[in-house]
Write a structure and sequence with these properties.
Oligomer: single chain
Order of helices and strands: HHH
Helix content: over 70%
Number of strands: 0
Distance between the termini: 46 Å
Radius of gyration: 17 Å
Length: about 100
């Protein structure tokens, strides 16, 4: 079974991924996009070079679009997970409004 715990362990297997492996890979990709956003934002906050900030800002926006696409795939591949995430959203909204 392919291991999806570190980005460098992801490779193209000789067979199609199982549903569980595919879901795991999508979740890793989603986490990786959030990590990339964090890295780019930290670099932007650490420099006064306007061209660097401009380019990284655009790249960060692209990464956010990737997050949206990957999350949609997650919803499609695992409605159960999507339902649990939505429950967490609703629970948080209820707690905030108290």
């Amino acid at each position: 079974m392919p291991e999806f715990t570190k980005i460098k362990t992801v490779f193209t297997p000789k067979r199609p991924l199982t549903e569980i492996e595919l879901l795991r890979a999508i979740k890793l990709a989603l986490a990786s996009e959030f990590e990339a956003i964090q890295i780019y934002q930290q670099i932007m906050e650490s420099t006064d070079k306007i061209p660097v900030k401009k380019v990284l800002s655009e790249i960060t926006d692209d990464e956010k679009h990737h997050v949206g696409g990957l999350y949609k795939l997650l919803e499609i591949l695992s409605p159960e997970d999507a339902k649990a995430y939505e429950y967490g959203v609703q629970e948080t909204l209820e707690n905030i409004s108290k």
